[in-house]
UniProtKB/TrEMBL annotation:
InterPro entries: MoCF_Sase_C, MOSC_domain, Pyrv_Knase-like_insert_dom_sf. It comes from the Bacteria. This is MOSC domain-containing protein. Pfam families: MOSC (PF03473). Residues 18-168 form the MOSC domain. Transmembrane segments: none annotated. PANTHER family: METAL-SULFUR CLUSTER BIOSYNTHESIS PROTEINS YUAD-RELATED (PTHR36930), MOSC DOMAIN-CONTAINING PROTEIN (PTHR36930:SF1).
Length: 180
């Protein structure tokens, strides 16, 4: 399974949206160089309050561009980077991948999926009604979080728009992504 990187983003501050970049550098065990959420331990403010020594399972936020297509059809104005992702993808069903999946981004960088992004109240402050639009229910009535996936950097490297994404599924038993 392959896809592509549509856009890359980062922000040195804890703003909701991130800024488009020509390229970002992923640093092994840390995240996106120069991004406010980079670090071996948690950097998201709510998680730092709970336990600042907890490992950072949210070093890189990836979001599928297909969600933007869906949201635009529903009347929202959203573009890559608006929802705070570092990497906007196309052609990979991120939400269907199991925990532990490794994505090779470009020639060298690799990230390992750790879980789902749990939409927060900041989404509705960005655009009213958007939080409920990034949530859904499956056929069994279970909640589906569509706001992207989180990952840790397993191998550093430069990532650019247009890079190929190669998916490596984990060996052994597979577990669905859960919010992290």
């Amino acid at each position: 399974m392959t896809g592509s990187v549509l856009a890359v983003h980062r922000s040195s501050g804890h703003e909701f949206s991130k800024y488009a970049e020509e390229a970002i550098t992923l640093v092994e065990g840390v995240g996106v160089e120069g991004d406010a959420h980079a670090g071996a331990t948690v950097k998201h403010r709510s998680r730092v309050k709970r336990d600042p020594s907890a490992p950072n399972l949210r070093q890189v936020h990836l979001l599928h561009a297909e969600l933007f297509d869906e949201l635009v059809e529903r009347g929202f104005t959203v573009f890559p980077g608006d929802l705070g992702e570092n990497v906007t993808t196309r052609g990979v069903d991120l939400l269907a991948l199991p925990a532990g999946t490794v994505l090779r981004l470009g020639d060298a960088a690799e990230v390992e999926l750790t879980g789902l992004r749990n939409p927060c109240s900041q989404i509705d402050r960005f655009q009213p009604g958007l939080a409920s639009a990034v949530l859904d229910r499956d056929a069994a009535g279970a909640l589906v979080r569509k706001a992207g996936v989180m990952a840790v950097v397993r191998r550093g490297g430069v990532v650019r728009a247009g890079d190929t994404i190669v998916v490596q599924l984990p060996q052994g038993p597979r577990h669905s992504l859960a919010p992290v």
